[in-house]
Design brief:
By secondary structure, this protein is mainly beta. It contains 3 helices and 36 strands. The chain starts with a helix and ends in a 70-residue tail after the last strand.
């Protein structure tokens, strides 16, 4: 195209614009050949542009309805009958609207097509309508949705009743799983993973409600120490965001990262089995601004105790815990508020920051750290609030575990004592509830401006900047 533009410019310069239609142009044979080539090239480029325009407007909207037929055209007035047939038709930029009703696929809804950054492929209910995708008629050990393509969005469905997973991603890239309700699956509610950390990236799991999954572990068999699924499970994913989901009453961990990195933020996680938020072999993961609690439902207890709040370990796999941040969380109740477990592989916490969290009344204790090869791990600006003579800490003092500017109330800091500590009632608004804002400091609280400056912590649980005063406050909230 650049050559064509240059040729046209040269011809135009030889002819005065006002006399363009009046003058006869005499060209030598070589010039005639160049002129013809130029015109053909210009015409071809024009055709290409027209084709591109057609592609840009070729994105289609397909419809699926319970009273449709897969022999139909897939239009609003002539909808398909099955989601699987709509999947077979879609291309980049297409959207599939599913009309109200309950759909019972007989095979996994496998989405292997690719969208693009500017033209993703989307599946969602028709606006204002409720759509249930029920896996009761699937063969054993089959997922309901399974995504292997790129730039795919699944939004707004109720996904339920399956022998395996509700929404699974295996090898898909740049996927959005938004505002779905996923429940009553025998394995994970939502799963993303692959065997190569660098292959699967840019996954967003946001606004979903995930409950009553991992049903193969219901009731939990005796003497089994691991192997259950999770509400939201991330395995082998290089970059993922798990944001603003509600994850509860799953018979496995609530949210779990295994050998993965990314963000777990602004989720409400409670009453899951064993652990509510779990980092296993995670690298460069941030757990921030989450509300984690228990309502003491014994069906989800392990060893007669509610799930631990936030736990990290190195169980299996190639990767090890490294460069993780756990900041600005409110953790209420649970067995342990924070727990590092030396399981199977071990290796310890490395370059880990646990800061500006509020831990309240663990039933066993607030911090347990198993002995291991820890290095460069810091606990700073946290509130540890305990009562009723329940232990505060269980770990061995180590130069690799650094503590400073934490508030301890209701028990001894033990090996967690450090410089800048506060030992007083933090004067929180209304502690003891499961409402995050009740754990804000009141006027006159000793946590106000008693923290240390942490460049890795730039805001608080509510998203307000730190510091709001001259210095950082201790705990999840700035006053």
């Amino acid at each position: 195209m650049a050559k064509t533009q240059g040729f046209v410019k040269t011809v135009s310069e030889k002819i005065k614009p006002n006399s363009l239609l009046k003058k006869t142009i005499t060209l030598v044979p070589t010039q005639k050949k160049q002129w013809l080539i130029g015109i053909l090239a210009f015409s071809t480029c024009g055709t290409i542009h027209l084709q591109q325009a057609k592609i840009a407007i070729a994105a289609k909207t397909y419809y699926v309805a319970t009273n449709g037929s897969d022999s139909n055209l897939g239009t609003q007035t002539s909808p398909f009958a099955t989601i699987s047939y709509a999947i077979s038709k879609v291309q980049a930029g297409d959207i599939v609207y599913v009309r109200t009703g309950t759909y019972y696929p007989t095979q996994t809804l496998w989405i292997g097509k690719n969208g693009t950054a500017s033209a993703p492929i989307k599946f969602q209910p028709y606006p204002g309508e409720k759509v249930i995708v029920d896996g009761s008629n699937l063969p054993d050990n089959k997922d309901i949705f399974n995504i292997g393509g790129d730039y795919i969005t699944i939004e707004g469905f109720e996904v339920r009743n399956g022998d395996r997973m509700g929404i699974a991603v295996w090898g898909g890239d740049r996927i959005k799983i938004l505002n779905n309700t996923v429940h009553n699956l025998k394995s994970n509610g939502i799963f993303t993973g692959y065997s190569d950390l660098n292959q699967v990236t840019d996954i967003l799991i946001q606004g979903n409600t995930v409950y009553n999954n991992s049903l193969r572990n219901n009731p939990p068999p005796p003497n089994v120490t691991s192997g259950w699924a999770e509400g939201i499970n991330v395995s082998g994913v290089g970059s993922i965001r798990v944001i603003n989901n509600k994850v509860y009453e799953n018979y496995g961990e609530g949210i779990g990262f295994q050998g993965s990195g990314g963000l777990i933020s602004q989720n409400t996680v409670y009453d899951n089995y064993s652990v509510n938020i779990y980092l296993d072999n995670a690298t460069k993961a941030t757990v921030e601004r989450n509300l984690v609690y228990t309502t003491y439902k014994t069906a989800f207890y392990r060893f007669n105790q509610p799930a631990n709040g936030i736990q990290i370990a190195n169980e299996t796999g190639t990767y090890q815990l490294d460069s993780n941040k756990i900041i600005n969380n409110v953790v209420i109740g649970g067995g342990w508020g924070f727990y590092y477990g030396n399981y199977i592989k071990g290796g310890g916490m490395k370059n880990t920051l646990i800061a500006n969290n509020t831990f309240y009344k663990g039933t066993i204790g607030l911090i347990r750290i198993d002995d291991d090869a820890h290095s460069n791990t810091k606990f700073a600006n946290n509130i540890f609030y305990q009562t009723n003579n329940v232990k505060m800490t269980q770990f061995t003092a180590s130069s690799a575990l650094k503590f400073n500017n934490n508030l301890w109330y209701g028990g001894s800091a033990g090996p967690g004592a450090g410089t800048g500590d506060v030992t007083a009632n933090p004067l929180l608004v209304n502690p003891g509830t499961n409402k995050a804002s009740d754990y804000k400091p009141k006027s006159g609280s000793p946590v106000i401006e008693a923290g240390s400056t942490l460049t890795q912590v730039t805001n608080d649980y509510a998203g307000s900047s730190r510091p709001l005063g001259q210095k950082y406050d201790i705990g999840a909230y700035e006053f």
